């Protein structure tokens, strides 16, 4: 039978922070993987458009992407989407 109270077995602040940071690092790894996947898919679209005589950039589509992120995440979502677009198609 355990003789420790719940207080005694509760995690220390340090342990709680360390465990949460491990989860954050794992989430960040997944986000980075998704960004790399997005970049590869975006390259297919851009190459296909260029090969068929179009331009690398589609500003109307970028407006849709920016709007999608802003609706989901608010104003900072727009900045995030702009950074994502720059990662996927380079600077314009
Ligand atoms: O959807 C497209 O048309 C793409 O080329 C992809 C993408 C994107 O990464 O979201 C990249 C460049 C374009 O300017 C617009 C959007």
From TrEMBL:
Top-level lineage group: Bacteria
PROSITE patterns found in the cross-reference section: CHORISMATE_MUT_2 (PS51168)
A UniProt-annotated Pfam family: CM_2
Every Chorismate mutase domain range: 11-92
Name the record gives this protein: Chorismate mutase domain-containing protein
Species this chain originates from: Streptomyces graminearus
Phylogenetic classification of the source organism: Bacteria, Bacillati, Actinomycetota, Actinomycetes, Kitasatosporales
């Amino acid at each position: 039978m355990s003789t420790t109270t719940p207080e005694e077995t509760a995690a220390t602040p340090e342990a709680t922070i360390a465990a949460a940071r491990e989860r954050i690092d794992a989430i960040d790894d997944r986000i980075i993987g998704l960004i790399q996947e997005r970049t590869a898919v975006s390259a297919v679209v851009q190459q296909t458009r260029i090969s068929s005589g179009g331009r690398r950039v589609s500003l109307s589509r970028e407006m849709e992407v920016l709007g999608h992120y802003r609706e989901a995440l608010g104003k900072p979502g727009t900045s995030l989407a702009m950074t994502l677009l720059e990662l996927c198609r380079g600077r314009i």
